[in-house]
Amino acid sequence: MKNKYTSIYSKLVLLIEEGKYEPGDTLPSEHELCAQFDTSRETIRKSLNLLAQNGYIQKVRGKGSVVLDHSKFEFPVSGLTSFKELANQLGKDFQTHVHELVVQQADSPVRERLNCKKTDNLWKITRTRVIAGEGIILDKDYIRQDIVPGLTKSICENSIYDYIENQLQLEISFAKKEIVVETVTEEDQQLLDLQGHQQVVVIRSYVYLSDATLFQFTESRHRPDKFQFVDFARRTKV
Amino acid sequence: MKNKYTSIYSKLVLLIEEGKYEPGDTLPSEHELCAQFDTSRETIRKSLNLLAQNGYIQKVRGKGSVVLDHSKFEFPVSGLTSFKELANQLGKDFQTHVHELVVQQADSPVRERLNCKKTDNLWKITRTRVIAGEGIILDKDYIRQDIVPGLTKSICENSIYDYIENQLQLEISFAKKEIVVETVTEEDQQLLDLQGHQQVVVIRSYVYLSDATLFQFTESRHRPDKFQFVDFARRTKV
DNA sequence: AAGTGGTCTAGACCACAAC
DNA sequence: TTGTGGTCTAGACCACTTT
Question: Which stretches make up the HTH gntR-type domain (chains A, B) (predicted)?
Answer without folding.
Answer: 2-70
